[in-house]
Amino acid sequence: MVLPDSSRSGAQPGVVHLGLGAFHRAHQALVYERLLAGGDSRWGVVGVAMRSTQLADDLAAQDGLYAVQIADAGSVRWEIPGALLRTCVAARDRQQVVDAIAAPAARWITLTVTEKGYTPDLAALIVDGLGRRKASGLPGVTVASCDNLSDNGRKLQALCMSDATARDPALAAWIEARCAFPNSMVDRIVPAATRAQYDAAAAALGVDDRGALSTEAFWEWVIERRMADPSDAALLAQAGVTVVEDVKPFEDAKLRMLNGSHTALAMVGAVQGWATVADGMAVPGVRRFVYAFMTRVAMPSLKRPGLPDYRDALLERFANPHLHHRAHQIASDSSLKIPLRWGPALRDALAAGREIEPLALACAAWMRYLRGEDEAGRPYTMSDPQADALQALARQHAGDVESTVRALLSVATVWPAGYADDPRWAPRVAHWLRRIESAGMAAALDEVVAG
Ligand code: CS2
Predict the structure, then answer these.
(1) Which of 147, 193, 195, 178 has the alpha carbon at shortest distance from 28?
(2) Mean of the pLDDT values across residues 196-216?
(3) Which class does domain 6-244 fall in?
C-alpha cells in the first residue's frame, strides 16, 4: 500500500477540480499527489462535486483521503492519494466554489463534469470566480476541460467567453489575455464505486472507506502546451503527463477506439445481458467484434502513432478481470456519447468510401438496446436525458425494421441530417437490426466479423 507522502499540511489549494466523480479521484488526483510529493506545494485540490452532497460529505469526513485499488493481470496494489484538501458541492455551496477559484493560491481549474455538464450555468460559475480574480488584480489561471469531448478546451473557452462577453467585455478581454484553455485527453478506466469496492477496501486495509475506488494500472493525460503559467508544462511532464502542441491525434484515437468500442460493447452487453466489459471480452465472438470495430472502422482515419499496439493494449485493458465496469454504466447518456464516439468515424469512412459494417451493427445494437429489454426478455432502465423519447420511437416502430431505422436515424441530436436516407448507411443498419432480431446478437457479431 502507498500512503500519501505529500506534505498535506503545507499543501496549497492550487487546483479547483469540478466533478468529483470516480474518474478524477483515481486519475488526476494521483498526478497532483505526485507533484505534491515531489515537494511542490501548489497542487493541493479543492474537489467540487457538482451535485452529490453525499460523496463530498463522506470524503470530507475522511479528511479527503480514500483508497484506490490499482489492479491488472500483473499486480494488485493500493494507493491513498493525499491531494484532496477539501470538498464542496456546486449546487449547495456555490459561493465556496467561486471563492476557491478567486483565491490567490488557485492556479488551475480542471473539469470532469461529463458530456452533459457543459451548460451556461457551468460557465457562469467559472466566470464568477475569474471576475473576482480580475477585480483583485490576481493572475489568470489555466482552465482545463478533461471530459471526453473533441476540442474540449476550445468548447469550454467558447462557453466561458460568451458568458463573460454578455456581462462585461473588459472581463472577456482579461480572460482571453490571461487565462488558458488547453485541449486535453485523459484516460484511465475507473468504474463507478460500488459496495463491493468498499468491502474490498475494508478487507484489505481494515478501514471503512466510503470513497474507495478500483482502477487499472494504465493512465494517460495528454495536454496541449497552452497554460497560463508556461512553466507548468515541464512540471506536468515530470509527473508523467504528455504535453504536446496538438492533442487532436490522441483525442481522436481515444474517443473513436476506446470510447467508441466502449459504447458498442455497452449496447451489445445490455442486449445480450452480460454485466461487465470484462465478461463480454471473455466471449470470443465479442472480443473479435471489438477487434474488427477498432481495426476496420476506427483505425483507418486516425493519426496517433502506433495504432496496432494501442488497439492491442485496449483489448487487454477491456479484459482486465479486476475492473467491474458495467455495460449499463457505459450505456448511460449514449445519446450524447454516440455523436462524439461514432459520428466522426462514420463521417470519415463514408467520405473515403470505406466499409462501415461493424459500426452499422453497433448502431443496430443501439436501436435494439432502446427497446429496454435484453434477449432473454429481462427489462432494464436506461439512464439518458433522451431515454423517454428514444424508447418511445424504438417501441412505436418495433416489428418494422425499415421504419425503426428511419425514425431513429432521423433524431437530429444524435445523427447528422441526411443519414436516414443515405443509401450507404441506413440499409446496412437495417440489415444488422434484422439479423439481430432474427438470428440473435451473437450470430450477428459472428457474421460481421466473418464478412
Ligand atoms: C466510458 C469512459 O463510461 C464511459 O462512457 O467510455 O468513462 C471511459 O472508461 C474513460 O473515458 C476511460 O478513460
Answers:
(1) 147
(2) 91
(3) alpha beta
